[in-house]
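Predicting holo structure, flavin-adenine dinucleotide bound.
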Amino acid sequence: MINLKHEKNPMPEQDPVVRAGNFEEVAQGYTAQMAINEAMRCLRCRKKPCTTGCPVMVRIPEFVAEVARGEFEAAFQIISETSALPRICGRVCPQENQCEKFCVQGIKGEPVAIGRLERFVSDWHAAHEEELKAAAKAKAEAAEAGDDEDLDLEDLAMEPQQVPSNGHKVAVVGAGPAGLTCAGDLAAKGYEVTVFESLHKPGGVLAYGIPEFRLPKDIVAAEVAKLEERGVKFVNNAIIGRAETVEELFEDGYEAVFVGTGAGLPAFMNIPGENLLGVCSANEYLTRINLMKGYLPEYDTPVQKAKRIAVVGGGNVAMDAARCAKRMGAEKVYIVYRRSMEEIPARAEEIHHAIEEGIDFQLLKNPVAVLGDENGYVTGLECVEMELGEPDASGRRRPVTKEGSNFVLDVDCVIMAIGTKLNKLILETTDNLKANDWGGIGTDEGAATSHEGVFAGGDAVTGAATVILAMGAGKTAAGSIEEYLKV
Ligand code: FAD
Ligand code: SF4
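Done. Tokens:
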């Protein structure tokens, strides 16, 4: 039966006042009944527009139909056909610009909450995994003994299995979503995969950037553990281009290399005062808090604990930094963004949560200087007001300064979240590896670079994008590497 309710079933969440003081997950997930009710809102459209809006083409109506029937494991198996990290995507994908944007229910009301359902299904699977494995094992043993002819091969797929080696060694550089997906797909085909990661933990932005209250780190660790069970080896604290070059990886016997090193080099505004004490990049701030657990009193990680903070930027990174700042005890946190709410690029849910948590949005404002005292510490952020002019090359209306509108925000810390660039280390240390137009690693559609045997994908190729696009690129590259090594 279809439920014609126009609104999504609301997501249970921690109270905004309570959660602004802790790092626990904000959204608490649907119950089974809520998920079934939500799934029943799906109209089973014949043309399946939602599926075309998903970068990895998850069979959405089919998995949603299984949820509506209460068949959660069947729903999980459908999602897993195309998405390697559904617990992560269900939490962080910008669904409003992807699958949900095309959902027919969205024309008259709110779209089906596809992301929330994906999260529910994959969390349900994780919570029941041990039970499912035990049942599958018992069934397999019974079948072997000839007692059970009803052996369902899907049951056996529960266990991440280490496929026998096909003798080919592949190196993956960077353990973000692109690298992890590429590694997982190749390991599933019997390739001997080693992932080299410059930080002390795998996960890329999932580990160092996105905060615990949006993406609990045990979820990322569980995905990495599954890859290890499939035979993927991780070498942490290994900066390729410094410790070893790409060329040296080939000398070590790797026959193909996938580069998924992201675009983590922070950009600054180049305004006066940016070198004052109390100015930092959002990436550094978030890394100290997330990866180095700067929010836990038992950790010695040095991290700014300012009282009045301005975060410059309007993307997910800016929202994450602002909401972390609040949780680190700041009394006043501003988001300073030069366009209006119409153009702000962060996920709608993050903006909504930030507003609920008391973040002060200074829209149509742009910093022109960081002000400091005689000891070099930040005392304020001088800004100007902006108005929107004609659309620029990106199609968004260009912000134009209102002359004489200068004012000062009284802050003791400024966090820059205005975008990131590629770290050029791999390009500079690998011969015959060509850059693309924006300075990232150049590839063809199949993720092959100009260097024989080297493939690349994710933010390192496209510039800062999304988790699901990085995963899609890792998948494409794994397919191309397989083709390449077959010849
Ligand atoms: P990354 O995740 O950046 O991983 C690259 C890895 O390579 C890193 O671990 C890095 O340490 C390692 N590395 C770099 N150089 C070397 C080297 N020379 N040798 C070895 N290892 C190296 N996207 C969404 O879809 N939804 C969100 O809500 C969202 N929020 C975000 C919040 C923040 C704070 C940030 C920073 C990004 C966010 N994004 C979000 C974007 C998304 O996380 C990225 O697009 C995605 O992680 C890119 O994946 P990747 O694998 O290409 O690179
Ligand atoms: Fe269901 Fe919406 Fe997809 Fe139609 S577009 S099949 S209503 S989820």
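The pocket of iron/sulfur cluster (ligand 2) is lined by residues 42-45, 48-50, 60-61, 64, 103-105, 111-112, 114 (CB under 6 Å).
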